[in-house]
Amino acid sequence: MSAPSELRSGSDHRVRIAGLPRGPAQAPRPATPMAASTPPGDPRPGSHSATEVEVERAAQAVVDAQAAVSNAARAVGEAAARARTAAAVATVAASAAATEAATSAGAVVRAEEDARAAAAARLAARLQETESVAAASGEFAHRGAAAAAQIASVRVAEMAAADRAEQTSNAVATEAVLHAVRAATSAAALAASAATLAVEAEAAASLLSNASAAATAARAVAAAVEAKAAVVATAAAAAAEASRKEARLTHDVLHDELTGLANRRLLVDRLTQALARAGRSGMTVAVMYLDLDGFKSVNDTLGHAAGDQLLVGVARRLQKCLRETDTAARVGGDEFVVVCEDLSHPSDGPLVAGRLETALAAGVMVGDLLVPVLMSVGIAVSGPASQPLDMLAEADTAMYRAKGGRG
User: Fold this and answer.
1) To 5 degrees, how large is the angle CA 60–CA 65–CA 69?
2) Top-level CATH class of 261-403?
3) What are the structural domain ranges in the chain?
């Protein structure tokens, strides 16, 4: 055989076959850089909080685990490549051994072939063990990476919770500060309001003092006015009483005391005024002189009180039969005079006298008795030059002629 062959026993088997190049030299794997860790509790300027340091450590552990997994995978790949190369070498060696066995003598060739086959089997078993170890290393690396990722997520969650707690605490503190500021502002406003109210209270007290003085003055003025009003009222009452007395005296002077009819003085005055108006208007004035027949028998039979009651009843009956412009007067014991003015014709006087006679003849109540009243009437009618006393005398004369011998 022209191609040299070399076989060594033991744990290191190397097969060199002519025409096959040596495997490329494996470059040494670079060492995985490990991040320098800061020991816990190492205070450095600008360092993060303990939670952030732990999170960084967990992230670095994840990175380291990933690097380890990558290195393990690369080692597995390299081991597989070496195993394939070794298998190829073993195959070539087996082929070469077979070739040599074919050319060598029986037992030696078979022994060498068996040895080579055993060596190849052992190498394959070691390769399988190496692949199993590499696979186990990769699984462990993956589990470590998952655990590191879970720890990192827990750390991140804890950090987020801490951040939220810090934000909540800051928000609560800010709200408390705002409440304190608002409370201080409200207190300041209340203090200002209290000061304003105090000033207003002082002003009110001053006004009250002035009002009290004004009230005292007003009471004094009211008392003076009341006193003056009392004086005025007294004077007014005295004046009214004097006026009433004067009116009563005037009435008594001009009216009959018993019947309230006009007396002779008022009769003459009103007759004078009626004649003056008749002279201007051309109307007629009639004077009727009335005398009650049988009045003396009433006094003698029923008494003077009954006679007075009869005279009052006659006076009321005459006033009901006359107009407001007419005048009825009592001029003697049982003698009455009626003055009717504004008559359009001299014959109107007798008509009025007839109504009066009829009204009195119907009777006047004296106590429980209805006493018919008869009367004698004398009438005088005015002319262009008539005088009051002359008309009264003419009517009186006519009444006596009418009366004749009646009492």
Assistant:
1) 150
2) alpha beta
3) 47-195, 261-403
